[in-house]
Design a protein that fits this description.
- It is built from 3 helices and 5 strands, in the order αββαβββα.
- It is an alpha/beta fold.
- The chain is 25% helix and 28% strand.
- The strands form 2 sheets. A 3-stranded parallel β-sheet has the order 1-2-3, covered by helices on one side. The chain has a two-stranded antiparallel ribbon with strand order 4-5.
- A hairpin with a 2-residue loop joins strand 4 and strand 5.
- The chain starts with 11 loop residues before the first helix and ends in a 7-residue tail after the last helix.
- The longest helix is centred in the first third of the chain and has 10 residues.
Length: 110
């Protein structure tokens, strides 16, 4: 199955443990994906990116160090309301993610 983690709320050793033991990493582009440095070889990586961000190859390059399968999906812009204020957000179709999981023969349901 899948486990949702919040690296920003973990100590360093726990972050390393989770990334080292993962067979699949799905995450939004950002500092937490720097933990790919600790990933094991052949891990599958799906990076989710906001459409208005400047696209870089940083995480693709990190994935390449470990012969990992890497894909980036760029989302669609939307506005998210919080407490009466709107801010930029993004969404990615769950079908695009499922298609990628199936293509990579990743078991979705246990």
């Amino acid at each position: 199955g899948f486990k949702v983690i919040y690296p920003e709320k973990m100590n360093f050793d726990l972050q390393v443990k989770y990334f080292r033991n993962a067979r699949l990493i799905i995450g939004e582009e950002g500092a937490a994906l720097t933990n790919l440095l600790f990933a094991s070889e052949n891990v599958k990586i799906l990076e989710l990116q906001e459409p208005h961000m400047i696209s870089t190859n940083l995480f693709k390059d990190l994935a390449g160090l470990f012969q990992s399968d890497y894909v980036k999906i760029i989302g669609h812009r939307c506005l998210i309301g919080e407490n009466g204020f709107a801010r930029d957000g993004f969404y990615i179709s769950v079908f695009r993610v499922i298609r990628w999981l199936l293509k990579n023969r990743i078991k979705i349901i246990s």
